[in-house]
Amino acid sequence: MSLLVTGSIGIDTIKTPGGIRENCLGGAAVYFSMAASFFSAVRFVGVIGSDCPFDLAEIFAGRGVDLTGLELRAQSKTFRWTGSYHEDMDDRTTESTELNVLAEAPPKVPEAFKDSKFVFLANTAPALQHELLGQVEKPAFVAVDTMDLWIQEYPDDLTALLTKIDCLTINEDEARMLAGRHNLIRAVQKILEMGPGVVIAKKGESGSIMCNAEGDIFILPAFPAADVIDPTGAGDSFAGGFMGYLAQTGRTDFETLKTAVAYGTVVASYSIADFSLDGLTKIIRRNIDNRLAELRKLVKFKL
Amino acid sequence: MSLLVTGSIGIDTIKTPGGIRENCLGGAAVYFSMAASFFSAVRFVGVIGSDCPFDLAEIFAGRGVDLTGLELRAQSKTFRWTGSYHEDMDDRTTESTELNVLAEAPPKVPEAFKDSKFVFLANTAPALQHELLGQVEKPAFVAVDTMDLWIQEYPDDLTALLTKIDCLTINEDEARMLAGRHNLIRAVQKILEMGPGVVIAKKGESGSIMCNAEGDIFILPAFPAADVIDPTGAGDSFAGGFMGYLAQTGRTDFETLKTAVAYGTVVASYSIADFSLDGLTKIIRRNIDNRLAELRKLVKFKL
């Protein structure tokens, strides 16, 4: 089924204890699309400025990513982000952010994309996510990512958005912040009461936990990574694998959601194994399926 | 097969955001024995002073815990610990520690216990653990717990001990400290090189990861707990379930170790659900087996 993503395209500078990569391709919609492309065609909506050095058509060539919704604004500049990771690679400091096009009006969802069934609204101001969602006619499953900034600055916008969506993906600390609960299970339960039928709390190297409004729970560790090179885009890669698999199957029952979380986990493990998109561009679907089987073995025990 | 534990008996005062319990029964050997007793007979070695208000014979009545190795020192006082848990229940502050009998000579392993096959040396100074281990004739599987204090104060003693044992259970932050590695997988690999054939890194509410020297890995989340009342003894309860199941089966192959970790995880989840030993004393083996099946379902996904 059709899969739409709206989100950022970024020019990233990434500093890690192991090295620096300057002015590389990033952005939530880019990571998401690359990850999802192993499973499904992707409809891409995002904005760049005239300074964007990347040819997205070339980067996504042969991957089924429809760039009809990629808007180039000649008078604007592309979103830029510089971040530096701490020694443990789970924490990072944002050194600079230049919103540029992201501070302007959001892009338009092209006519041809308005019938999209699976929709991922990558992290941005919840009012913008709301506006983008309003341009899709009758989506079947809408997932949203958010962050601490919006929880703190625009709680009402976020609360309104939560009543309109099917699934929220959120970092564990942000889940606690949004819910005002220290216990993560309690926090997720509280967010479920706010609207979404499914909540996925992301715990970095400790994996994720998914709960639905019916009380089902699924917990999965991350794939063990001895070499984390660049965690940037891990959450969006996770979302791409997750939504890509759902769009591929066309189903959203809890069993399918569980497998989708596992696929998201595996795709994220490849994403963090190299800088920028390099961890994703050098694998094929068979690598993902093989690692999925490995992951299943890692958590399996006999009664 | 026979299972021996050496470790502390404590008079604990526990402060949590939800309440306070003063002068309650605690100590590593006590939590361990209660947890292991669901699976196997336990041989108990530890010391109390004349001030100990608890009748361990009564507390362990009908549970197959042999207290021949419980030493009462009339001139000494029992170990006391006061700790207060932070809002997140994963971190705690030790408010006071009175070592008392723990600062004296260690207990003797009774003659009748010297042929023990499964041995757990609960957390104490590594030199004492070494001395206790020397009193066991020909153990088949020795597991040890340790903590930051010994890693920092007696690294040589600990390093020497690690060459004599089969399994180390250790908190994730302490594993990083011991190995000098930020990445947990790398840290565990480094500790495996120091001697033990198996290392289990405990991650609190995020579960645990077990690796062996052959490169096998097993990862298991904690059982999701919406109500954590008192995390004291969680690690020792985990170890009790783990070692108890190994002693019950008499096997130590990796498949059996995986199931043992799952049992340890489940027993710990009951331990933290109430103050002191109350979470463990009110359940029966069937509760544990039922929750084990639930845990298996929580992490299971279809390919």
CATH class of chain A: Alpha Beta
Oligomer: homodimer
CATH topology type of chain A = UDP-N-acetylmuramoyl-L-alanine:D-glutamate ligase
Rg over alpha carbons of chain A: 18 Å
So how many helices of chain A?
Answer: 11
Proportion of residues in helical segments of chain A: 25-40%
Write out the CATH superfamily name of chain A. Answer: Ribokinase
CATH architecture of chain A: 3-Layer(aba) Sandwich
Q: Count the beta strands of chain A.
A: 13
Q: How many structural domains of chain A?
A: 1
Characterize the main sheet of chain A. 9 strands, mixed
Q: What is the terminal-to-terminal distance of chain A?
A: 38 Å
Greatest chain-chain contact: A-B, 39 and 39 residues
List the helices and strands of chain A in order: EEEHEHEEEEHEHHEHHEEEHHHH
Low-pLDDT runs of 5+ residues of chain A are none
How are the SSEs ordered, and which strands pair?
Two copies of one chain form a homodimer.
Chain A: E1 3-6, E2 10-16, E3 19-26, H1 28-36, E4 42-49, H2 56-59, E5 65-73, E6 79-85, E7 92-98, E8 118-121, H3 126-134, E9 141-145, H4 148-153, H5 155-162, E10 167-171, H6 172-179, H7 184-193, E11 198-202, E12 208-212, E13 217-220, H8 234-249, H9 254-271, H10 278-281, H11 285-298
Parallel strand pairs in A: 1-4, 1-8, 2-6, 4-5, 8-9, 9-10, 10-11
Antiparallel strand pairs in A: 2-3, 6-7, 11-12, 12-13
Helix pairs in contact in A: 1-8, 6-7, 8-9, 9-11
